[in-house]
Model the fold of this input.
Amino acid sequence: MEIEFEKSRNELLNRTNVFVKIRSVKTPSKKELQTKVASVLACDQALVVVDKISQEFGSKISNAYVKVYDSLEVLKKIELEHNIRDLLKEEKEKEDALKAERKAKKEAAKKPAEPEKEEAEKEEAEEKSQEEVKEE
Done:
C-alpha cells in the first residue's frame, strides 16, 4: 500500500486536514488507514478520524479525507458522535473498569475488618468447646 499525503492546517478547528491518495489492490478499511496515518504523522491514533474513503470502480487508487486533531477535548467537541463512537466506547469501558477497580478496593478495605470479627468469634467458640471438654 503506497500512500501520498497532502496536509493543510485548520487553526479555527485546531486540527490538520489530510487528503490521502492510496495505491492498493483493495480499498483499505478505516481502521487500517487510521493506524497508517497515525504512524506516518507520529501522533496518537485516538486523535485521527477517517472521514471518507472513496474509490472509483476498477481503479487501484483510493482517495481519503482524514482529520487529525490537536487534543481529545477538541475532537469530542467538534466531531460528530457517530464518527467517534468507537473511541467513546473504549473510554467508557476504561471508566467502567476504573469504577469496578475502585469498588473492589472499597469492598476489600471493608472485608478485612469483618473476618477479624469472625476469627475472634471462632476463637471464643473453640475456647468454650475446649472448656466443655475439660469439664467432662
In short: The chain has a mean pLDDT of 84.
